[in-house]
Amino acid sequence: MHIITLGTRKAAVGAIRCYIKVYDSPSKSSTEEDDELAKLHASQKKKLRQKQRKDEARAKNEAEVKSEEAVGGVSKSGKRNVKPVDPDPHGEKLLQTEDPLMEAGKYLKLLQKHSSDSLETHLLSFEVNMRKQKILLALQALKQLQ
Asked: What Å distances lie between residue 12 and 38, 63, 120, CA to CA?
């Protein structure tokens, strides 16, 4: 039995909980958003579009500033410190998964393999397996939790 570090375990637990929340409350599709926009008054639509443009411009400017800071850094030895720029800083691509429970299952397997002595591992196993409608695995998790 291997025990993983506390930080790694917390990261895996956080990822599993995020995927469970994504499964429980999926994001709205573009057609649903379009339907909601159709219900708004013309002035409200205009304000919403302006706000979206400002948010996009602000995010673009912040990304440019961060990339300039990362490229401009020079260490004491004269070598440049180039930090990789995160292509998905807000995690939107990660949330656009087809099957969030499958993704949660990947992290859950890691926890079960390396941190099987943790009660939280078995609790998360129960939650994921109940949502997958795998009752026997959920009951096994409860038994190990006990």
From this structure: 40, 27, 11
Q: What is the reported pTM?
A: 0.60
Instruction: Compute the distance between CA of residue 85 and CA of residue 52 in angstroms, rounded to an integer.
Output: 23
Dihedral over Cα of 130, 132, 136, 142: its sign: negative
* Cα–Cα distance, 57 to 79 (Å, whole number): 32
What distance in Å separates the CA atoms of residue 104 and residue 16, rounded to the nearest whole number?
5
pLDDT tens per residue, range 89-144: 777 777 788 899 999 999 999 999 998 889 999 999 999 999 999 999 999 999 99
Contact status, residue 20 vs residue 100, Cβ threshold 8 Å:
yes
101: number of Cβ within 10 Å: 20
